[in-house]
Amino acid sequence: MSTAEKGAANDQGFVNGDNSANANVSRFITPGGHPADSSQPAFPIFHRKIANPSPLGLYNIQTRGISAPNVVVGPALFYGGLCQLLAGMWEFTTGNTFAATAFSTYGGFWLSYGVIYIPWFGIEAAYEGAPDELASALGIYLIGWFIVTFMFLVASQRSSLALSGVFFFLMITFILLAAGEFTGSVGTTKAGGVLGAITAFNAYYVAMAGLLTPDSSYFTLPTLSLDFPNKKK
């Protein structure tokens, strides 16, 4: 048996509670217990010597309904963008592919959204004198994020109702904002802003549910698991 195979066998013995597993298994599995601990409500949480980055990533920056969004360029870049990107990278260390992909993706969204309003990049200047063309370009940009969010909504169907709600409301937000850009309808854009606010509060709830752990709080928040086949296990 090769060294790699022995290590894998030791890992499996440790996870299955086999006390005869080689003591060197500690090099392969981080201390803390079974790696598939589902006691946390939002994402599957894995035992690691690292704080849970999920709540940080779930705090989204909302710029909807602001007539001059340039004031939030800083938060969009560093909080919505950089912090979510970092949260996504940290989720990779926990083996949580879904959260890692989601946080990294929306970190990229906020970074790309923020630079639109930075004159140095010349994005708005390129459409000077052609506001309709800029609106169409932004509409197509938002449609792309609507599609990405729909994919995350489908992928979250066995997580929790609270988490799936974030992607559902965000998906509707993107499609309404895109429709507002295409049609020039202020009402449609405002409706997108309202859905964006609902999305934000939904995300705050999921973030709070992740923060209120049995170790740090006297109570927790329900997120309503959608993993029905495993509820009785």
TrEMBL record:
Pfam families: Gpr1_Fun34_YaaH (PF01184)
Intracellular or extracellular location(s): Membrane
Transmembrane segments: 71-90, 110-127, 134-155, 161-179, 191-212
UniProt keywords, alphabetically: Membrane, Transmembrane, Transmembrane helix
Membrane topology: Multi-pass membrane protein
Matches recorded under InterPro entries: AceTr, Gpr1/Fun34/SatP-like
Keyword field contains Kinase: no
Chief place where the protein resides: membrane
One Gene Ontology term of the molecular function aspect: acetate transmembrane transporter activity
Taxonomic superkingdom: Eukaryota
Coiled coil: none
GO cellular component, one term: plasma membrane
PANTHER family according to UniProt: ACCUMULATION OF DYADS PROTEIN 2-RELATED
Family: Belongs to the acetate uptake transporter (AceTr) (TC 2.A.96) family.
UniProt protein name: Ammonia transport outward protein 2
